[in-house]
């Protein structure tokens, strides 16, 4: 019979266990030293990409509004407050009567009198509606923001004869239009009723887009509690606008700078755009 005391004992000894623990620790430390920078770099790239996307989207949204703005309507309330009057469409108006024999009486605008209606000679993409505003010949921000050369739409319909134009716009009583002296462009812009003024404001680490349903002579940079948020994590914000007054006043330039910061990373973007100031 086999002696139980002579059986081989299986398992690790204490020394072997300690050696294994030490080796695993060394290998884990080496792997951590090799992999940790790569993991951190991967996370940093992801954070920078998210910040870049947010900043780029915000700046391009501003540029989109700038390019659709009423000419000469941009102004700065401060270096962190850009304001403009957006437009939804525009076109050309009849600026004189049709003197052809037996021609029907057309509706036109000129610089001799204030009139309540006019015939449109071009097609609309977004046809104006009741309470939309019409502006003509705007030369500077104070005019359009102050309501000068601006009238509200009452109705839009077909003219009595097709030869008069594509549509006839009738203005609300007391808000007629008169062409500014010296203006020969015969162009008008449509301002949507719901967004007659738009302000972009940086405040307390956030960028807001604020729309107002009216025009006001003074710049508005206050942020309402319900203001839509365009970007967060803002640590740097600057708006610079040059109207290029003088020989090149019909082409302004706006420069937008935005810095966004996350947990570990920060991204700065600058975007510029030419501003069409031909009224």
UniProtKB/TrEMBL annotation:
<protein>
    <recommendedName>
        <fullName>MSHA biogenesis protein MshO</fullName>
    </recommendedName>
</protein>
<keyword id="KW-0472">Membrane</keyword>
<keyword id="KW-1133">Transmembrane helix</keyword>
<dbReference type="Pfam" id="PF07963">
    <property type="entry name" value="N_methyl"/>
</dbReference>
<feature type="transmembrane region" description="Helical">
    <location>
        <begin position="12"/>
        <end position="36"/>
    </location>
</feature>
<dbReference type="InterPro" id="IPR012902">
    <property type="entry name" value="N_methyl_site"/>
</dbReference>
<dbReference type="InterPro" id="IPR045584">
    <property type="entry name" value="Pilin-like"/>
</dbReference>
<keyword id="KW-0812">Transmembrane</keyword>
């Amino acid at each position: 019979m086999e002696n139980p005391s002579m059986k081989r004992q299986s398992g690790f000894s204490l020394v072997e266990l300690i050696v294994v623990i030490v080796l695993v620790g060394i290998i884990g430390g080496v792997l951590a030293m090799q992999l940790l920078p790569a993991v951190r770099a991967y996370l940093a790239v992801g954070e920078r990409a998210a910040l870049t996307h947010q900043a780029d989207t915000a700046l391009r949204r501003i540029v989109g509004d700038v390019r659709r703005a009423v000419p000469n309507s941009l102004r700065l309330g401060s270096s962190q407050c850009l304001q403009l009057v957006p437009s939804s469409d525009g076109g050309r108006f009849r600026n004189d009567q049709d003197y052809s024999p037996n021609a029907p009486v057309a509706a036109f605008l000129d610089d001799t009198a204030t009139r309540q209606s006019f015939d449109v000679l071009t097609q609309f993409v977004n046809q104006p509606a009741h309470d939309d505003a019409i502006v003509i010949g705007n030369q500077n921000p104070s005019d359009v923001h102050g309501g000068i050369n601006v009238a509200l739409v009452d109705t839009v319909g077909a003219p009595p004869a097709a030869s008069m134009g594509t549509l006839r716009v009738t203005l609300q009583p007391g808000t007629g239009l008169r062409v500014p002296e010296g203006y020969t462009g015969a162009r008008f812009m449509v301002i949507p009723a719901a967004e007659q003024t738009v302000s972009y404001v940086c405040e307390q680490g956030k960028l807001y887009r604020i729309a107002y349903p009216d025009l006001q002579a003074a710049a508005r940079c206050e942020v309402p509690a319900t203001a839509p948020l365009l970007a967060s994590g803002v640590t740097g914000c600057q708006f610079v606008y040059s109207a290029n007054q003088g020989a090149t006043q019909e082409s302004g330039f706006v420069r937008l700078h935005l810095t966004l910061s996350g947990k570990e990373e920060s991204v700065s973007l600058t975007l510029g755009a030419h501003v069409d100031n031909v009224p």
